[in-house]
Amino acid sequence: MDISVRNPMLSPGDEGYVLSADFNINLNPRLDDAIARGVTLYFVVDFELTRARWYWLDEQVISRSQTFQLSYHALTRQYRLSSGALHQSFASLDDAQRILSRLRNWLVLERGAVRPGESYQAAVRMRLDLSQMPKTFQVNALANRDWNLSSDWARWIFSPAEFVVPAASAVVPLPVAVPDSR
């Protein structure tokens, strides 16, 4: 296991609950070499929230995933970290990994998706997704342990309180200049 999860936390945000976590990512030399040769690595952060039921299997409240692409562009000599339409370039692999290892303010639960006062089990992990890589690398990766990169699930109990909008997002009226009518 070359990825570990530290400090996972759900906190109230503007539109619901947001997830923040730190990951310790240690790429082995084979993966470093693959990136340097232009192979894009796909890292997926998985989040699950379940609620225990005494009469049946646990209820899965929500399951979310977010994909990050880590690549190297030889022409610009820069590493690129992408998520959806957002891209950021870095001069070194360490800089890109530092940003990849800090997940902040990912909206995982909309307001009203959980009931205040109930207990839920939250879980998060990060893994290297081999299914999104080119087929030739998928075959090599399945046969080689160096390509199996995944953290264990980090699990914790989450008990939401009454949802209160954070003070930073409260609307403050601005003074309006009234023209002098003299």
Keywords, separated by commas or semicolons:
44% strand, 182 residues, elongated, mainly beta, 3-stranded antiparallel sheet, 3 helices, disordered C terminus
Overview in brief:
By secondary structure, the protein is mainly β.
Structure description:
The chain has three helices and nine strands; from the N terminus they run ββαββββαββαβ. It has helices at 29-36, 93-100, 135-143, and strands spanning 3-12, 16-25, 41-51, 59-73, 78-83, 86-90, 102-110, 120-128, 154-158. It has a six-stranded antiparallel β-sheet. A hairpin with a 4-residue loop joins strand 4 and strand 5 (78-83). The chain starts with a strand and ends in a 24-residue tail after the last strand.
